[in-house]
Amino acid sequence: MVGGGTKDRLLCQMTADACGAPVLAGPVEATVLGNLAVQLIACRAIENVRQARKIIAQSEAVTPYSPKHTQSWDAAYDQFQHYIVT
Q1: Do 5 and 11 touch, CB atoms closer than 8 A?
Q2: Which positions ≥6 away from 19 have C-beta within 8 Å?
Q3: Pairing mode, if any, of strands 23-25 and 63-65?
Q4: For residues 66 and 81, what is the distance between their CA atoms, to the nearest angstrom?
Q5: DSSP letter string over the chain?
Q6: How far is CA 22 from CA 1, 11, 70, in A?
Q7: CB neighbourhood size of 13 (10 A)
Q8: Burial status of residue 10 (CB atoms within 10 A of its CB: 0-12, 13-18, 19 or more)
Q9: Cβ proximity of 60 and 32 under 8 Å
Q10: Could you tell me the CA-to-CA distances from 11 to 16, 36, 68 in Å, in that order?
């Protein structure tokens, strides 16, 4: 996940739980960093997207979230499917 929503730990944990998959949250200002990266490439201050990704990865924190409460999310999805089908 990237963007401002990654500041909300509950949202990140619920996303991991609902998807049943690990989530990496960050960077918060992904749009700004992407724009800056493209400008740096355009003015030849850095070589390419690969280098931009490396710079961003080294300068921004990423927070991992592991799924913990998947059973309740699976049950809610089963209930949702029941209402959609009927």
Answers
A1: yes
A2: 67
A3: antiparallel
A4: 25
A5: --SGGGG-HHHHHHHHHHHTS-EEE--TTHHHHHHHHHHHHHTTSS--HHHHHHHHHHHS--EEE----HHHHHHHHHHHHHHHH-
A6: 11, 13, 12
A7: 17
A8: exposed
A9: no
A10: 9, 27, 13
Taking only the tens place, the pLDDT of each residue in 33-70 is 999 999 999 999 999 999 999 999 999 999 999 999 99
Tokens of 79: 């209930």
Distance, CA of 15 to CA of 20 (rounded, Å):
8
pTM reported for the whole predicted model = 0.80
Decide if 60 contacts 8 (C-beta within 8 A): no
Tokens 């070589």: give the residue. Answer: 47
C-alpha 37/C-alpha 48 separation (Å) is 9
